[in-house]
User: Which sequence fits this backbone?
């Protein structure tokens, strides 16, 4: 039974890590008043960048590739949304479609149709002495690839930056009232562009995690809606880094329930488990979304 | 000026695609020849390839255009299409055995209703719980995919239980082919008629006016126009879902004759490009749908003859939307959650 529970914890962390990374990036983006619907495309590009990078530079090269392609995607998004003041939702949708097309075409062109068998180097678990010996939860939480610790660490760094520094205050001001922030001397466009680049780095890391720490390969469309789920997690976590991390972990735990159910041998169809994350997202949003308040300027075009 | 911009956009996207293929070391000339031949090479190719693919694209394109006009960002046409296809298949297989016209009508109705119900979930989530419809409709798309996957491997699987698909629907539920010797079916006429009705309704009825006003500015619609914005949003979602569901029903009854997992090659997403290219005008959705139908048909030929992956079509779609955005072809929407 404890082995089963340990598997449950490990599975929860595995689901939560890429979602949490992407969602922490999106918190900063949304606090700057931008909603990046193309996060799905960013994660997919990150995954593809990880594949490209790892064929040249192993695991480290893979993460570099993931971060670079993720940030490149949001740089394009920033150009449309911040510079051209284009509609955020339409731009985001178009960029997600673009990411699907470009990664799909490049993958088939570069690796052929036999690419599915492709396997690339993966990041091994890094055991933290002491903590990983905690019974039941220790292995799941503290015997993980390094990127999981990056997720843990970024929760507190981000909290500190957003709520304890002047730049963090500036970010939140831009999201609430770009006009007031501008009057106070904050360069709104710059803040938004930099936030998006940070969101791209985190989304890229999330994609890299899927390839380099979990699947060990790339598959077309492997982001599988995680970008949209991450945006939902930002809402569930009430636009606060700690809240978002908790929401990601709760979501991971809820998805991991499938292991317990499958072990229980109820003979439920496997498609039910595959559909579970999406249904959970809908239910969770219905329960929470109406009772929170988004940054006031979210998704609005800055007319200044 | 508008014509010039349109020409510039089309030229840019042809050049971009050619460059992309050359960079990837494909034979661009051969690919281009395959693309054109596959779409327009013969009367048969035009009817069986382009127009057959244009049929679901016109209907889903209308679905997206009507929703967007009402300020409803329904990106769930894919899921609504799948649910419509499922409902039509179920009625055709298990429904009453009646004459052909009644069976066809009943399947259409079932497809439209289930599509509308699937969209109504997102409408309810938005109007009652303030859930952003972009997220909810995408989640519903994934849910629909796995629901179809379960049905065609479980309760609705064909009798031999070998293939992940349903049995073929009875002949009574099939749509008749149009004269001309191609695979083009009566569903194309349904798509054209739907576009006509939608165009007239948007332009000349009070309901269409309320929809457009709500899309432009929900606050003004509510305070100055005394429009019940929630109600308009719900209706926009329902009509949108019904059209996408009808598209799914027609695809089963006119083309595939059975339900299986990958019945849609992403029509619901291509529909967004169709609607935006048509500038959300129901009448213009017809030529835009035919253009993308040609592109899809041509891409299939390109994959067959020149080995270019057909997924390259989504690059073209995205580039087109981005070009429209960059040239300010798409106005800013005023959007508020209700």
Assistant:
């Amino acid at each position: 039974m404890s082995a089963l529970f340990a598997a449950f914890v490990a599975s929860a962390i595995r689901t939560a890590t890429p979602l949490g990374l992407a969602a922490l990036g999106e918190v900063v983006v949304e606090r700057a008043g931008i909603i990046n619907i193309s996060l799905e495309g960013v994660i997919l590009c990150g995954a593809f960048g990880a594949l490209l990078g790892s064929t040249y530079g192993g695991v480290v090269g893979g993460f570099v590739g993931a971060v670079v392609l993720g940030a490149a995607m949001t740089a394009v998004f920033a150009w449309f949304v911040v510079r051209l003041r284009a509609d955020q939702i339409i731009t985001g949708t178009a960029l997600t479609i673009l990411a699907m097309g470009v990664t799909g075409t490049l993958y088939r062109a570069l690796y052929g149709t036999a690419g599915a068998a492709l396997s690339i180097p993966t990041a091994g678990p890094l055991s933290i002495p002491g903590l990983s010996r905690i019974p039941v939860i220790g292995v799941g939480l503290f015997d993980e690839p390094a990127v999981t610790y990056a997720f843990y660490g970024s929760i507190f760094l981000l909290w500190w930056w957003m709520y304890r520094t002047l730049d963090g205050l500036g970010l939140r001001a831009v999201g609430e009232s770009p006009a007031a922030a501008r009057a106070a001397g904050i360069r709104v466009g710059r803040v938004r562009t930099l936030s998006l680049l940070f969101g791209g780095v985190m989304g890229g890391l999330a994609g890299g995690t899927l390839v380099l720490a979990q699947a060990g390969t790339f598959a077309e469309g492997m982001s599988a809606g995680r970008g949209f789920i991450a945006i939902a997690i930002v809402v569930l976590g009430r636009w606060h880094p700690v809240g978002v991390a908790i929401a990601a972990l709760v979501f991971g735990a809820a998805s991991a329930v499938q292991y317990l159910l499958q072990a229980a041998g109820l003979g439920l169809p496997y498609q039910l488990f595959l559909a579970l994350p999406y249904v959970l997202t809908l239910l969770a949003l219905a329960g929470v979304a109406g009772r929170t308040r988004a940054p006031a300027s979210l998704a609005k075009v800055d007319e200044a | 000026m508008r014509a010039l911009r349109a020409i510039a956009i089309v030229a840019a996207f042809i050049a971009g695609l050619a460059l992309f293929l050359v960079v990837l070391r494909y034979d661009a000339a051969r690919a281009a020849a395959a693309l054109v031949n596959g779409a327009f090479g013969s009367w048969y190719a035009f009817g069986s390839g382009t127009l057959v693919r244009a049929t679901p694209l016109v209907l889903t394109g209308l679905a997206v255009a009507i929703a967007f006009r009402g300020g409803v960002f329904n990106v769930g046409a894919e899921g609504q299409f799948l649910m419509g296809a499922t409902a039509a298949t179920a009625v055709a297989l298990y429904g009453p055995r009646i004459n052909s016209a009644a069976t066809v009508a009943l399947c259409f109705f079932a497809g439209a209703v289930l599509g509308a119900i699937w969209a109504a979930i997102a409408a309810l989530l938005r109007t009652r719980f303030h859930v952003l419809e972009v997220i909810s409709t995408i989640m519903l798309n994934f849910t629909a995919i796995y629901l179809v996957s379960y049905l065609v491997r479980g309760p609705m699987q064909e009798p031999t239980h070998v293939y992940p698909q349903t049995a073929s629907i009875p002949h009574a539920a099939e749509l008749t082919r149009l004269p001309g010797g191609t695979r083009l079916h009566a569903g194309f006429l349904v798509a054209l008629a739907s576009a006509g009705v939608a165009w007239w309704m948007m332009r000349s009825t009070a309901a269409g006016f309320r929809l457009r006003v709500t899309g432009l500015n929900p606050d003004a619609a509510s305070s100055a126009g005394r429009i019940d914005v929630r109600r308009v949003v719900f209706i926009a979602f329902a009509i949108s879902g019904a059209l996408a569901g009808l598209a799914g029903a027609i695809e089963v009854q006119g083309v595939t004759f059975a339900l299986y997992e990958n019945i849609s090659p992403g029509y619901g997403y291509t529909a967004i490009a169709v609607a935006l290219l048509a500038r959300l005008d129901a009448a213009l959705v017809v030529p835009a749908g035919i253009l993308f139908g040609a592109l899809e048909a041509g891409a299939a030929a390109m994959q067959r003859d020149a080995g270019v992956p057909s997924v390259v079509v989504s690059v073209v779609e995205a580039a087109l939307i981005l070009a429209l955005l960059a040239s300010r072809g798409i106005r800013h929407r005023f959007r508020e959650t209700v």
